[in-house]
Design a protein that fits this description.
With 149 residues, the chain is mostly beta strands. It is 0% helix and 50% strand. Strands 3, 5, 6, 8, 9 and 11 form a 6-stranded antiparallel beta sheet that branches. A 5-stranded antiparallel beta sheet has the order 4-1-13-7-10, with no helix packed on it. A two-stranded antiparallel ribbon has the order 2-12. This is C1q domain-containing protein.
Length: 149
């Protein structure tokens, strides 16, 4: 039968997820502006960089992302959910006399070191998202659905 071999690696469960929020309102000052977050709910493995406002892929696979915002009365809200430097989906709300909650979701296949982030896109109108220092109106979430095999 032979000698017993060296033990193998234990089963590894690959995980990656984050949920962050922002407590401060924001008016876009530049044509493109990364949305930076100030509140962490979950950040497994520290894959979300709070200083850059970007998620970095350490576990290749398919991910689910969701962004939620609160519009500002009489102001346009225009955001892109970005995969590296490519816009994937848009979250848009026209100026209105009422503020509303808006949401956008997408699933993306990611490779090692890919980045996913949210940017404001300023056009000719004032682009803004509402929040206050008490409640969290702005969230960005992502999690691994299926690791790459």
């Amino acid at each position: 039968k032979g000698d017993t071999g060296a033990p193998g690696d234990p089963c590894k469960i690959q995980q990656s997820s984050f949920s962050v929020g922002r407590r401060k309102a924001l008016h876009s000052a530049d044509y493109y502006q990364a949305l930076i977050f100030d509140t962490v709910f979950v950040n497994l493995g520290e894959h979300f960089n709070m200083f850059k406002g970007k998620f970095y892929c350490f576990v290749p696979g398919v991910y689910f992302f969701n962004v939620n915002i609160h519009t500002w009365n009489f102001k346009e809200t225009y955001l892109h959910l970005m995969h590296n430097e490519r816009q994937q989906v848009i979250l848009y709300a026209q100026p209105s006399d009422r503020s509303i909650m808006q949401s956008q979701s997408v699933m993306l296949p990611l490779e090692l070191n890919d980045e996913v982030w949210v940017r404001l896109y300023k056009r000719e109108r004032d682009n803004a998202i509402y929040s206050d220092d008490v409640d969290v109106y702005i969230t960005f979430n992502g999690h691994l659905v299926a690791p790459k095999v």
